[in-house]
Amino acid sequence: MPGTPEANRTAIIAGSGGLAAEVAAGLDAPIVAALEGFAPDGIAAETFRLERLIPFLDGLMDRGVTRVVFAGAVRRPALDPEAFDPLTARLVPRIAMAMRQGDDAALRELIAIFEDAGLAVAGLREVAPQLLPASGILAGRVTAADDADASRAAEVVATLGALDIGQGAVVAGGLTLAVETLPGTAAMLEFTAQSRSGRGGVLWKAPKPGQDLRIDLPAIGPDTIDQVAAAKLNGIAWRAGHAVLLDRERTMAAAEAAGLFLWSRPDD
Amino acid sequence: MPGTPEANRTAIIAGSGGLAAEVAAGLDAPIVAALEGFAPDGIAAETFRLERLIPFLDGLMDRGVTRVVFAGAVRRPALDPEAFDPLTARLVPRIAMAMRQGDDAALRELIAIFEDAGLAVAGLREVAPQLLPASGILAGRVTAADDADASRAAEVVATLGALDIGQGAVVAGGLTLAVETLPGTAAMLEFTAQSRSGRGGVLWKAPKPGQDLRIDLPAIGPDTIDQVAAAKLNGIAWRAGHAVLLDRERTMAAAEAAGLFLWSRPDD
After folding, report:
1. I want to staple B6 with a disulfide (CB 3.0 to 4.6 A). Which of A255, B64, B157, B187 is the partner?
2. Where is the LpxI N-terminal domain (chains A, B) (predicted)?
3. In sequence order, what E strands does chain B have?
4. Cβ–Cβ of B100/A174 closer than 8 Å?
């Protein structure tokens, strides 16, 4: 109810991982909710099912929520046809059609459904800008060869984005060792670790060109450091202002300890 | 020496695998040569080192060779700086610069060096057309969903080609599960096997757009069948007339036995 003390609250739609807790820490009394089966780390969350999305959104608005922000990774949930309420069921053809068009289309449609229900969907750049490092080298040292690899990888990701494929690539000495696809960054880095004999190179992360930046921003955290070290890369670079650095102090310390650079890289 | 019985011979530059033997079977008394360390299967080959390429090419011409054909996969060999002869050493800056520009540039430069030495470089389409199946379904059955996956994968490979990345992709239900990079097809399929939970989908193979078709055509053989079966795909499709089907009878029988389709697919 607008005008009550609870009005203008923010709801965090939490995915798995620690991002939701970090976003919540910067907000005043947010509601934290997560899809059943995708509980976030480090913070309690109420759960909802996609099959009952409309009643869930109505419930948020009844509690004074005017704005939602997506925080964290969600995989496509399995849907139980018997669990739908009638209003959400009506959205199924729309969601199914969007899913067939790929991840970007599915996420854009999800945002549209929230907005149609009367909620503003904000991005992390607006709600939690402190989590998105501006340009700068945050750990280690970057060489000219690393810069060239990052530039090449950025070109690969930009080109792939037109195909709605991944947000990442691994380039070493100008050669593309791996490209991120559906299985994600960790799987790509494990592939790199297993399939290469040398060392060096860069993990590059960036949103897909044309992606809605209010959802599914790339994220780098302590786990990424371990995976990049195992893949024998020199460091991690990302498009400045367009990726989340999780657990910043710990991630930076882990990068220094592993001899890896962390580079929030300005556009070429 | 032109005019002698030995004139107009063809030399097969063999990579590893069985392709060179299949090419040789269709030719009259070819010379078969392989880089040291990359011996082909099923046929004897003389060896040469890249550091002594010019004397090797001169030797071929002395024996009446006028035409060479590349047959099989060659990885970048390690070069021993002490092993160079003076003429080949002069080519090193040219080769090194091409290598830095990626695989396609390196292979184009290699072809140019053969041609500069006075040898014609022919493609498999000219020398061994019987190894490149024309359009048709060679094993199993293809559904509309498989066709859509193949079409999508063809689009992925065509787009990646502009970046000189791989010749293959795996698409299932419209989703890109894997993209071929430096480690090659077998590594991509192993990644797919390890990272997926479902089944279905297509392995697509095609040359990179703009690639010189006289070298490094995609090849499908019995090993590919095993790898595709382990990745739980429905089958293999490739750009008709632009990929080699190795060990045809055995590969087709293996595909049928594994319930996989083999599809030499015309362009969209």
Report:
1. B64
2. 10-131
3. 9-14, 31-35, 46-48, 65-71, 120-122, 136-139, 168-172, 175-179, 202-205, 219-220, 235-239, 244-245, 261-265
4. yes
